[in-house]
Amino acid sequence: MKTDELIRKNVIEEINLDPQLSRVASRIGVSVKDEVVTLSGMVDYYGEKIAAEKAAHRVRDVKVLAIDIEVRSSENTNNITDSNIADAVWNALKWHGAVNEDTVNIKVENGWVYLDGAVDWEYERRAVEKSIEHLQGVKGVLNQIKIKQQEIDPNEIKKKIKAAFHRHATVDSANIAIETSGHKVILTGNVRSWTERMDAEDVVWLMPGVTEVENRIEIGSEIYAGE
């Protein structure tokens, strides 16, 4: 078990090594208490906030992460209105090859971008958010885009997920249990890191017909006997 101070040191080093954060790393504060990591400070773009979150999650022993980072550009963005942001978001989606902008509804309020609509795949849903992370003036994104339902056999989906786990280099399938309920997949068990937890979820989202994933996998040293 690593001490809070060692976890803090490792998170700071990971943030400092991330090229996406090279301009703002010195503005990001890191505190750790009882293994709960808190990131604070100010960044210029929403994408930098996401990058800081991902950097912290890459550190082993980070189990709980609180984000208190404010998105407030150090450049003069006072003239950027919600209407300007909405136009920029629309253009970003229009030029993104993986996104059909006609399937997405956009609302911008006080710099926050609200997305809804329906797409066929989770990767499309994520691509929409990814395409606007570094737009000036965007303070945050609430992604409520849904995945369209397709006809599926829950038992067949479960078999495909198990097979995919066995093929995956970073997922220990022996420690993960899979439940299916209609178009929803529930994951339970215990893995070694946040990265492995998210890799398992990403595998499930590749399955056709899955519209919801409930990831209950815990991070720790206990071994869970999956099915």
Structure description:
With 227 residues, the chain is α/β, with parallel strands linked by helices. Strands 4, 5, 6 and 7 form a 4-stranded mixed β-sheet that branches. The longest helix has 14 residues, at 4-17. Residues 222-227 have low confidence and may be disordered. It folds into 3 domains: 4-71, Histidine-containing Protein, Chain: A (2-Layer Sandwich), CATH 3.30.1340; 82-147, Histidine-containing Protein, Chain: A, CATH 3.30.1340.30; 154-219, Histidine-containing Protein, Chain: A. It is flat and about 55 Å long. Helix 1 (4-17) packs across helix 2 (46-57). The protein has helices at residues 4-17, 46-57, 82-94, 122-130, 154-167, 194-205, and strands at residues 28-33, 36-43, 64-71, 104-109, 112-119, 140-143, 146-147, 176-181, 184-191, 212-215, 218-219. It has 6 helices and 11 strands.
